[in-house]
Specification:
The protein is mainly beta and 124 residues long. 3% of the residues lie in helices and 15% in strands. It has one domain: Leucine-rich repeat, LRR (right-handed beta-alpha superhelix) (Alpha-Beta Horseshoe), CATH 3.80.10. The protein has one helix and six strands; from the N terminus they run βαβββββ. The longest helix has 4 residues.
């Protein structure tokens, strides 16, 4: 069994839905997918702490599954197609949404703003 901790798929323009086998993603803490064609974070990445989806223009509305959001502390989604962040992300303390043209009016639920010292970069 592979115990990957960090994955860098930055600039990969042909990621498919099954790009990461389940046995390889269960211990990943950091995902760098900037400039990639990532649509959705794999649901078996349950230990993720940091996600970089900067300049990802293919993110789906459900880009972060419930099973992957519990430990997320930092998200860089600047200049991406991000529409909203899931609720109940109680460990999230930093998010960058600079240059995100598709943000919904309710893009960040109150339940994801609970972490002490929570900061947002790039939102009006």
């Amino acid at each position: 069994m592979i115990k990957l901790r960090d994955i860098n798929v930055g600039a990969c323009r042909s990621l498919t839905a099954d790009w990461l086998p389940e046995s390889s993603g269960t211990n990943v803490k950091k995902l760098n997918a900037c400039y990639s064609s990532l649509v959705r974070v794999p649901g078996h990445m349950t230990k993720l702490r940091e996600i970089n989806v900067r300049y990802c223009s293919s993110l789906s509305a459900d880009w972060l599954p419930a099973s992957s959001k519990g430990n997320i502390e930092k998200i860089d989604a600047s200049h991406s197609s991000l529409v909203r962040v899931p609720g109940d992300m109680t460990k999230l303390w930093l998010i960058d949404v600079s240059g995100c043209p598709s943000l919904a009016a309710d893009w960040l639920p109150e339940s994801s703003r609970k972490c002490p010292g929570f900061m947002v970069h790039g939102s009006d």
